[in-house]
Amino acid sequence: MTLNPFIYNPQQALAAGQSGFITDSGSYVVTITDARFRVQPSGAKSIELSIETEEGRKAQYLHLYHEKKDGTANPYGLHLIHALMGCMGMRQLHPPTHPGGPVSEFIGKKVGLMLQKTLKTRADGKETYRLEIVLPFFAQTRQTLREKLDGQTARDVDNRLASLKDKDERTLLPLHTPSFNDAIPF
Questions:
Q1: How far apart are CA 7 and CA 5, in angstroms?
Q2: What is the residue extent of each domain of the chain?
Q3: pTM score, two decimals?
């Protein structure tokens, strides 16, 4: 087996120790690499996004819940979907032809997203996190949809970033209470 020589690549050298995934709250200019309509086991409906930053960092499983499990509208998720559509210049999304179908209108589009990291505790007690979309904005100008429509300069994203913090929804697992069966025999 013959190995080719390594030729120094400064971009690869600077990437050492960096994650290939978005792991922090912040604002990012991204391209939507995948978008799918999803129905959760509970019955809640969402659009699930996968994204990639200009630097190649990725995030998956970003859900925009537009319908609650009882079938009623979820206003927060609907507002985010419509804001995304506005920031990407879209007038309509077509429903999928099959469950889990793609939202093809979103795929390949560039948009700005403010993401918030939420710390969680998994059922097995291990810690994890998820990223949630807080605010879409125009990738080219950093203006929110409101700022663009009102002819204002971009300020909202930076103002919100100044106070954006990770949410902590971790739960403490109950401590084991010793019982008679745990007694050490003499």
A1: 6
A2: 20-157
A3: 0.80
